[in-house]
């Protein structure tokens, strides 16, 4: 291997890990706010409902913005889109910390703080909504088709790691001050954005200056897989929502005990999901069919464990199986999507998929919490039926698209 080949390989790997680091940082930015904002909001006099609207507004903006980013990525380029998104992330998180700090020292009223943070959350979501589609499209363009599933799995794992690290960062860094996590995470995001500027180049992107023809996605063969993507995220976020209810009700625990046991359950689910996506899928180069069949099978086993195993060890086993099932299912669904569209449509597909995942994340907790009110086991029967339904849809699609998968 020549020096130029070695350098090219090193540069490609560096670009890959920098972009995956961006996803990890986005996961941190998305999750740490759930830990940091509520106590600070109460300290400055915001009602709990108003605090929740700050988070909801950001989620709703993400859904709309992600849908629109596909065309922008095609015009300005994938790397520029990442840089814009990460720069927006760094500035808005830092400014949010500054506004909250001013409110804590009484330089701003609670009302002024609410509207300023509300605006910053909107801008934050507008920016990061383009990061995931840009990175997914870049990595797909720079990866062989036979390695596509492992690439998608690494994307999911990187974001999941960030979601785990976010609350941990907030807890550890808050010892330096209530708003310290905002500044440090903003610095982290800004630093990664600068590294992307200097080291990540996209030689395969062709800008689209002419507006491409409209696509009726509802009639495209990829549409069932977009719905499956939304349903899988709905299931994940819904289970996270009801798990505290299940643990408290099943074992008759108080709030402190429930929080403690819930932490272990969530960690188990996340670790198994990351293990599958970072190790098993890349190691064995699993294809779409194997990934979706494995994901559904393990997911159904998880629902049986939730229903029939009454011990806390049973809950941990069920959460581990559920996380592993998601670790197989998610890259399988997204890989199938990318195989069903042309290269020129990848960024638009990725943005629509991110938007639909946002919808699933928003409605999942509401739907499963509502089902939980009907009975403790109702959500798990519903999830089992949804997984079997997804399997049926995939079998039908596979019979029609056997040449693709």
From TrEMBL:
It holds the Pfam family MFS_1. The chain crosses the membrane at residues 17-37, 49-70, 82-101, 113-140, 152-174, 180-200, 221-242, 262-281, 288-309, 315-340, 352-372, 378-397. InterPro entries: MFS, MFS_dom, MFS_trans_sf. Residues 1-400 form the Major facilitator superfamily (MFS) profile domain. Keywords: Membrane, Transmembrane, Transmembrane helix. This is MFS transporter.
């Amino acid at each position: 291997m020549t020096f130029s080949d070695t350098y090219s390989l090193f540069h490609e790997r560096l670009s890959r890990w920098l972009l995956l680091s961006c996803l990890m940082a986005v996961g941190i930015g998305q999750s740490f706010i759930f830990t940091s904002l509520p106590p600070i909001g109460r300290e400055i006099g915001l009602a709990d409902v108003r605090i929740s609207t700050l988070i909801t507004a950001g989620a709703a903006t993400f859904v709309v913005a992600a849908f629109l980013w596909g065309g922008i990525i095609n015009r300005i380029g994938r790397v520029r889109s990442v840089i814009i998104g990460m720069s927006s992330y760094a500035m808005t998180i830092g400014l949010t910390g500054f506004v909250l700090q001013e409110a804590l020292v009484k330089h701003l009223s609670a009302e002024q703080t609410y509207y300023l943070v509300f605006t910053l959350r909107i801008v934050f979501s507008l920016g990061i909504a383009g990061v995931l589609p840009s990175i997914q499209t870049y990595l797909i363009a720079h990866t062989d088709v036979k390695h596509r599933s492992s690439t998608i799995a690494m994307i999911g794992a990187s974001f999941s790691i960030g979601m785990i690290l976010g609350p941990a960062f907030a807890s550890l860094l808050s010892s330096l001050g209530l708003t310290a996590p905002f500044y440090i995470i903003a610095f982290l995001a800004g630093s990664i954005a600068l590294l992307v500027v200097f080291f990540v180049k996209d030689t395969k992107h062709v800008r689209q200056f002419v507006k491409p023809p409209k696509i009726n996605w509802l009639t495209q063969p990829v549409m069932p897989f977009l719905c499956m993507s939304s349903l899988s995220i709905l299931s994940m976020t819904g289970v996270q929502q009801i798990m505290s209810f299940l643990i408290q009700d099943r074992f008759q625990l108080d709030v402190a005990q429930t929080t403690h046991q819930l932490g272990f359950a969530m960690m188990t689910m996340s670790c198994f999901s990351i293990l599958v996506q970072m190790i098993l899928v890349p190691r064995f180069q699993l294809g779409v069919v194997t990934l979706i069949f494995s994901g559904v099978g393990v997911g159904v086993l998880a629902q049986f464990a939730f229903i029939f195993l009454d011990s806390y060890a049973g809950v941990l086993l069920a959460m581990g199986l559920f996380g592993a099932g998601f670790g197989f299912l998610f890259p399988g669904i997204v890989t199938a999507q990318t195989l069903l569209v042309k290269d020129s449509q990848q960024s638009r597909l990725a943005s629509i998929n991110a938007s639909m995942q946002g919808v699933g994340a928003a409605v999942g907790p509401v739907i499963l919490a509502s089902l939980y009110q009907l009975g403790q086991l109702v959500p798990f029967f519903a999830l089992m039926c949804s997984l079997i339904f997804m399997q049926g849809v995939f079998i039908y699609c596979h019979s029609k698209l056997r040449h693709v998968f």
